[in-house]
Amino acid sequence: MLCGPIAALLLHAAPLAGQPPQRALAVGVTPRDLSATDFDDPAWQAAPAARELFQQEPEEGRPATVGTECRVLATPHALLLRFVMEEPVAEFVAHELRRDADLSNDDRIAFVLDTYHDRRNAYFFATNPNGAREDGLVTEEGDPSLDWDTVWDVRVRRTRAGWDALFRIPYTALNFPGGGEIWGFNFSRIMRRCNETVRWTGWKRPFALSKISLAGELSGIPAMPTRRLRSLTPYVAGVVDRRESPLDTDLHGKAGLDFRYGLSSSTEADLTANTDFAETEADVQQFNFGRAALFFPEKRPFFLQRSQIFAFGSSNTTLPFFSRRIGLSNDEENPVPIPIDAGLKLTGRLGRADFGALAIQTREAAGEPRTDFFVGRVKQDLGEASYVGGLFTDIERPSASRLIASSRTYGADTSVSLTPEWNVTSYYAKTDNPRLTGHTDAWDATLTYNGEYANGRIERGNIGSAYDPQMGFVTQNGIHSTFADLELTPRPHALGLQRLGFETFYSFLYNEDGSLHEREYQYTFRALWQSGAYSDNDIVDVFDENLTEPLILTDTVTIPVGQYHFARHQIAFGTDPTRSFAFQANFNFGGYYGGHRNRYVGRMFFKPNEHLALSIIEDYNAVRLPQGNFNLSLFSTRVDWNPSVRLLSSVIIQSDNVDRLTNIQAILRWLIDAATDVFFVYDRQVGHGFERPGTRATVKFRKTFDL
Predict the structure, then answer these.
(1) Could you tell me the pTM of the whole model?
(2) Measured between alpha carbons, how far is 470 from 432 in angstroms, rounded to an integer?
(3) DSSP letter (8 states) at residue 212
(4) pLDDT tens-place string over residues 369-387
(5) Contact by Cβ (8 Å): 603, 636
(6) Nearest Cα residue to 668 out of 98, 42, 273
(7) Which CA distances in Å does 241 have to 285, 495, 688?
(8) pLDDT tens readout for residues 20-56
(9) What are residue 520's DSSP bridge partners?
(10) What's the CA gap between 612 and 181, in Å, rounded?
(11) Residue 678 to residues 159, 304, 352, 610, 675: CA-CA distances in angstroms?
């Protein structure tokens, strides 16, 4: 009943002014190979320059207050991009050295390359004055996924006038159609000293650099020979594994490989054998205070590489394909690794269609049988920034297994960009499992609006009670949902504010029999300052809960079946994240299933220089219920010590006093060169919450060879 009024409000919101005309930059060409240190090669002088940038923040559309120049050169084996950036007072803000760290709180230069010119997807590259490397993939104009890594180089130099950055991107790092072509291109610069963000094109405030449909063009790219991508990445590792209950120590070696083969300039195959993920960071510990399943993101490199082509659905409802179901046991909170014998991934583009296929075989381990996994995905362009796609997954296990012998999931989805501000997405998925009948499908349809002074979303969805994607993720089964959200974002020119936010949302969840599952409505006020400081306050957050099954919180506290009504509130703020010391605080308090729950979250960040960073997070909950009381402390601390961009280290400590878990992980990474890594990894698990606590130490060496 709220959909109509909210849609009307959004439709009558003031539209954005016309977008700037599309811009183009011609590419210079040189027959000589250049490195990322050739800042002063004469070939740069002959390459055209892009110099006219405009502010996105703080004064949209005004010229940049300092100069930025971009030139692009095509060499026989790589594309080089050189940025010359003025910085009059030479007051650089540059805290990060880690690869794929979030550089948005540093001075940063970033660019996107839409190599297929499909105006939806792109490669993302960035650096800061320290030369830290950040790379990722933009999919369907979403935020860049920094999980993607490839072999490339960037060097920076500081000058009296400011700083320069030179990127060298080998053609073997990119997929593209081949031949002479035009690529989509855009770049953006953040100057933290004055909190100014400038962009070459598409500088309207509601849109990020990843709004590829507003990008300009790189023209004059020469015809390139067919890409001959053949790379082999073997690894060797030594492991000392000491486990308790019962006590035993294993000392063993491992070896495996990844092989990448370019079938064409736009298609590649990736083979993995005896895959190892020793360097993967541990999951962030969570505690479930509700009925929806907890989501732990994928972190393993093989599955993250080019994973965006397989994206389907949402972690808020369901992911019909979730790669974390492969190579890990079904225990969500403490999964046990299952060895992967071999895997093959095929990704690419044919005409106006993106496609991907993944086949994996895992060995028998941790009580699970040998299993074969397969997923296929295709997405066909529908005009500009839109697509229609399909998904298929299949799991095959021995029929004698206690698990389902075979399971299949079928799905179709679409995303249609009506205007730069309006977008419609929807999906439908169905599962086919033996012995499971009933409502085996799930669907969702969402209309979103993203404007300068208003944002909104209307969503309807359903997840059947018998919907069970064995290779996927589901928050809750048997739920029909309606969600409506509206946020007004005025921009007062006072007190250093960037914008204010006044948001309200309504969420209705019903069971399949039509009875209420959960109802929630919330009113929120936010303030964001130009410095990055913020305040985020829930004036009221009201819940109506219908528990049809007991909700187990701890070994001694269980909330019984019944209907509950309660309200909660929140006060939160954060200081300027660009400072050496930053602090965030959150106080969430109020009713909770017939009792009270007060939650205090404090986050402290200390970065005295680019080599050292410390963060401490305490998430403390005081729960008082008629069935019992308990206090929960989720504590984590992280120390990063990075002597250079090629020698990186971190220590992460996490603890949970209710489930009695303590996890310590230390990782040292030495990037000998762009193609060679050495890892030293120490993992320590302590507490009764782990199946077998203990210690593991790993030394791993890997190197990429171009064949």
Answers:
(1) 0.85
(2) 10
(3) G
(4) 889 999 999 999 887 778 9
(5) no
(6) 98
(7) 22, 57, 18
(8) 557 899 999 999 999 888 999 999 999 999 999 999 9
(9) 507, 543
(10) 44
(11) 33, 20, 40, 22, 11
